[in-house]
């Protein structure tokens, strides 16, 4: 028997996990120290390192330079086709 995998990508899974980590942190922060389930160091690790690092990665948008586009935005496929057709026409003059 085969199992069907969800069509949701890993980015979406990680986003949901991040929301769960935030919920855990919020619930744990509301508990009295004696009633907390996590150690203080684990809670600190979640709040100060893990959650911010994951948020930073999920919110990251590379610049055009990082994508190799330079200062101009990339051409759309329609623009590339139009440019190729223009060059083709130039060759036949």
Describe this structure in words.
By secondary structure, the chain is mainly α. The protein has a domain at 1-61. The protein has four helices and no strands. The chain has helices at 10-30, 40-59, 64-67, 77-91. The longest helix has 21 residues, at 10-30. 0% of the residues are buried.
Protein structure class: mainly alpha
Mean pLDDT: 83
| Spatial separation of the terminal alpha carbons | 63 Å
Task: Report the radius of gyration as a whole number of Å.
Answer: 24 Å
Low-confidence stretches: none
Oligomer: single chain
Work out the helicity level.
55-70%
Note the overall shape.
rod-shaped
- In DSSP terms (H or I, runs of 4 or more residues), the helix count works out at 4
The ordered string of helix (H) and strand (E) elements is HHHH
| Percent range for β-strand residues | under 5%
Major sheet size, sense and barrel closure = none
Number of strands: 0
Q: Descriptors for this entry?
A:
93 residues; mainly alpha; 4 helices; rod-shaped
């Amino acid at each position: 028997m085969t199992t069907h995998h969800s069509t949701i990508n890993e980015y979406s899974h990680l986003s949901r996990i991040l929301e769960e980590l935030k919920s855990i942190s919020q619930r744990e922060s509301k508990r009295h120290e004696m009633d907390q389930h996590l150690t203080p160091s684990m809670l600190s690790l979640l709040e100060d390192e893990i959650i911010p690092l994951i948020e930073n990665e999920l919110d990251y948008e590379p610049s055009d330079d990082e994508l190799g586009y330079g200062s101009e935005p990339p051409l759309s496929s329609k623009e590339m086709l139009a440019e190729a057709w223009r060059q083709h026409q130039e060759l036949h003059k």
